[in-house]
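Re-run with default settings, no changes from the original entry. Doing this only to confirm the output is reproducible before filing.
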Amino acid sequence: MTLACPTANAVQEIERNLQDRIGPRRFQLWFRNSSSLHFDGRQVLVKVLNNFIGGWIENHFSDHLRAAAQETLQQEVQIAYQVTTDPGKSDEKNGSPEKKETFPHQNIIAPTKLRRKLRNSLDSFIVGTGNELAYSTINSVADKVISPFNPLFIHGGCGLGKTHLLQGLCNALSERHPNVGWHYISGEEFTNQFIVAIKSSSLDAFRRQYRNVDVLVIDDVHFLANKRATQEEFLHTFNAINAAGKQVVMASDAHPKSIDQLHNSLVDRFISGMVVQIDLPDQPTRAKIIETRAAQLGHDLPDPVIQLIAERINGNIRELEGAILKLFAYASLCNKPIGMDIAEKVVREYGRLDRVEIRISLIERKVAEYFNINVSDIRSAKRTRNFALARAIAMYLARKHTTLSFPEIGKYMGNKNHSTVILACQKIEQLLNLNQEVSWDTHTAKLTSVIADLEQLLK
């Protein structure tokens, strides 16, 4: 096919087209200052200084770049990326044909695969009494971009829909506000990218990636706990975005005050906005989730089966989805229609698992009531005498009266390290063996008596 313009002018035309699509400010930042375009007659190559710049351009501009190149060249083109210490300017800008290069395989980021949408949408989110406030605040951000709820911090146990809400927000922003720049990332990804940025001396590019957005959405923010340097970097990122009047939305398994080894400066900023908890779905919400998920899988479940599962499995959404899949697998293997007999077999196993979750939450609640503190104090990193004693006793009782492992107990009680749980249990066992007294606030009592009282409350 004959190109619409000679190779010598191709890059200039592509750049003009691209600038019209993304605006001069973003074009100047990402394609003048941080990268350069090259065209060899077959593919458009984006030369970048480091992986962060390449990843950012790929995730945010590759669709625009591909469209600009195809419109300019009037042919299908491949987009590729090359990390180089000197992106330089393309030879065709100087009016001379581009010199042929051999691009080392390890330096090429594979041809762009733009993730146009994140997996989840707000439309598919099942709203119930346990999550309606979280849904409403997320919708407010999706509508207004910069909402009164800033920062917005959503917390709750695993499998309750936090990630669904955050991804749904990003997709809604793309649909309702196409010109708004957002960035979605997990705490783990932020940490890993920060470490790479330090090692590759590309902190400036890393910081531009996160601080030049309208909405920063970070999932699993509790992953930053116990990582001082990353927390400091995120604090500066948060301050920069907040100072610019932009929106920050976060999600975590725990309330900011309950995240162990999270710097007080971050805790203060997280709670300065709106903190919303997502609770376990109630029975009507569970029934709606079961019905919806089954329909998505092409099944129309009988209402008695839906109600049985909703009544007997009172855990999180992932457990409900797992039960649905197991139900379909049973029916397929037995070559029988889905009925109450198969449903009974499925819920029997999940019912046992649910009791473990209920048991540890009951232990936390009863211990908190006994010591006249909050459950959040047990999950926190506070080390005052009564908090530390209550936390150690709760861990000991959880280990004794549930089948949870040390890491599982630690994760449940504020993402503590498993060694913390082991030491707490050993300490309580030693005190019990010595028949020691323990003191908290104005009370002093034999530990054996305290444990006996609590175990009576758990019956």
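The chain has four domains: 7-109, 122-277, 283-338, 358-457. The two ends are 80 Å apart (CA to CA).
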